[in-house]
Write a structure and sequence with these properties.
Blueprint: E1 2-10, H1 14-23, E2 28-33, E3 52-60, H2 66-73, E4 78-79, E5 85-89, H3 94-97, E6 105-107, E7 111-114, E8 126-129, H4 142-153, E9 160-164, H5 170-177, E10 182-186, H6 190-202, E11 210-213, E12 223-229, H7 232-237, H8 239-245, E13 246-258, H9 262-267, E14 273-275, E15 279-281, E16 284-291
Length: 293
């Protein structure tokens, strides 16, 4: 048996409250979005957070929470202190419990992402083996889904593809499995490079077909396809660089931006690219373009 304490805070105040809860005996802290708000970075390199968060603090069953509650109810960082809640949680096999929530996901007609404990849904499926919880995402975010749907309908046989801002490598892996001749996965985070290499090996993709590197190590080439699922600000800053990295007639796929950021991002690309109508899912957007001659 466990006790779970739930409280609502401004995300900017979450870190000191997390430390206070840990010092009070919490064995773990989890964050949830309090208002179903899209998350994006204002500036490259900053940490994206929701404006408001729900903190879930887990305590052992025999831990006395009266003192903890007394301190929290008078803490000015707590929003609506009277809504503090304590819930009793039964013991269960947590490692099996969370696995039940993750099932194979389909993108387009043939592309699937499957956790390692699930079999591919059909023999004809192009299946990416990717476990949830791995760093940098496993395909569940709408922007990743929008890019995967584009890849599913594309003919990549024999083409050179760049995945710029590769994260977990899910888009690079999809491109390789869908027949790309060579995929270059690029990220400015060394941990993302390691994650991409590890995930590509899990999917039996050779280092010759998929190469991961930091931006300064990007080989000199012009690709047939460039995908960038990052953020609005760096997408604007990288427009000229992306044009240099694509052949005339090459395809550009941009995501990671919100619907209210379409105009400012598109404006950075219209000089060198012909853009199609945006693809929108919820608040998130994919922009597709073709490099002008």
């Amino acid at each position: 048996m466990w006790q779970q304490l739930t409280l609502r805070v401004r995300s900017a105040d979450a870190e000191p409250l997390e430390q206070q809860l840990l010092e009070a005996g919490a064995v773990s802290i989890s964050y949830l979005d309090a208002e179903d708000q899209p998350v994006f970075q204002e500036e490259p390199g900053s940490t994206p957070l929701w404006d408001l968060s729900i903190l879930l603090a887990l305590f052992e069953a025999d831990h006395d929470l009266d003192t903890v509650l007394g301190a929290l109810k008078t803490n000015p960082l707590i929003l609506n202190g009277e809504t503090l809640q304590i819930e009793k949680l039964e013991d269960q096999a947590w490692e099996r419990s969370w696995m039940q929530d993750f099932k194979p996901m389909q993108f387009g007609r043939r592309l699937w992402i499957c956790p390692s404990w699930e079999a591919a849904p059909t023999d004809e499926a192009v299946t990416i083996m990717m476990d949830p919880g791995l760093a940098f995402g496993s395909g569940t975010h709408p922007t990743t889904g929008l890019c995967l749907e584009w890849l599913d309908q594309a003919d990549l046989q024999g083409l050179d593809v760049i995945d710029y801002g590769c994260g977990s490598g899910v888009l690079a892996i999809a491109a390789a499995l869908l027949g790309a001749r060579q995929v270059i996965a690029v990220d400015n985070d060394p941990q993302a490079i390691l994650a991409t290499i590890d995930n590509s090996q899990r999917n039996n993709i050779s280092l010759e077909q998929l190469h991961a590197c930091l931006p300064e190590a990007l080989p000199s080439l012009q690709a047939d396809v460039l995908l960038a699922n990052i953020l609005a600000a760096p997408l604007q800053q990288l427009a000229g660089h992306f044009a240099d990295l694509l052949k005339p007639g090459g395809h550009l796929i941009l995501s990671g931006l919100l619907e209210n950021q379409i105009d400012e991002v598109a404006a950075a690309y219209t000089g060198q690219f012909t853009l199609a109508e945006p693809a929108i899912e919820g608040d998130w957007v994919r922009l597709d373009g073709v490099r002008k001659a």
